[in-house]
Amino acid sequence: MTRTPASQPLRIASAANAIRHVFVRDLLLDAHIGVHRHEEDRPQPIRINIDLTVSEDAAPIGDLLENVVDYEHVVNGVRAIVAEGHLRLVETLAERIAAFALEDARVRAVRVRIEKLKIIPDAASVGVEIERLSGA
Prior knowledge:
Blueprint: E1 19-31, H1 37-40, E2 44-55, H2 71-83, H3 90-101, E3 107-116, E4 126-133
Antiparallel strand pairs: 1-2, 2-3, 3-4
Helix pairs in contact: 2-3
């Protein structure tokens, strides 16, 4: 039996590897998402968590926003993606968010977790988590 090699995990903040961790925690939005007819009629609450592995530049930050990955820009991008309209799958939303985050060349990897909060009565949440790497 051939064993598939494990993927490299998302590295979170490493001085040795010049990596910064930028994150968004528990972003609560209403989204038009789902495959069932009753999910098409009205938005439902979702929770989004995003972790970014960001390359640190050798140059000083200089207390300038343009020298870092701006988490507000990430949040605004997520809001815009959610506002585009109904999606059937949380996986599709996660992929779109990951692709958006990876547009910034400093982002090496992204992990996106999306939870639907009120769709299964006996569960606090259900959803998906993905990790994607930059092509660079």
